[in-house]
UniProtKB/TrEMBL annotation:
<protein>
    <recommendedName>
        <fullName>HTH cro/C1-type domain-containing protein</fullName>
    </recommendedName>
</protein>
<dbReference type="InterPro" id="IPR001387">
    <property type="entry name" value="Cro/C1-type_HTH"/>
</dbReference>
<dbReference type="GO" id="GO:0003677">
    <property type="term" value="F:DNA binding"/>
</dbReference>
<dbReference type="Pfam" id="PF13443">
    <property type="entry name" value="HTH_26"/>
</dbReference>
<feature type="domain" description="HTH cro/C1-type">
    <location>
        <begin position="9"/>
        <end position="61"/>
    </location>
</feature>
<dbReference type="InterPro" id="IPR010982">
    <property type="entry name" value="Lambda_DNA-bd_dom_sf"/>
</dbReference>
Amino acid sequence: MIISERIFKIMEDKGMNQLQFSNATGIAQSTVSDWKRKKTNPTADKIMTICDALDVSPFELLQDTIPSKGAGEVDFLIASQGTSEYAVLKRMEKLSKKSKEKLNTFVKGLK
């Protein structure tokens, strides 16, 4: 399923028509209509706006476009900038491999 098909499926599930979607995203209704008629996809810079309008995560929107065979399991978390979770993740990504292993051992001990 291409991204635009997924968008229309989510819109249908939410009872949202193209005009409502266009108003919520600021994307011209003719552009949205082109996605359906021409089987094209939105540009990458519109994905977050679309996700906000549909109240879905980028993963939910793109999940059918991520290859499942050979790619391994796709698993991630989203942390908003300015949150304590974000700050921890930013600090953690700067750690050495050995320090990450120590941190992982410490976190397991918190259970």
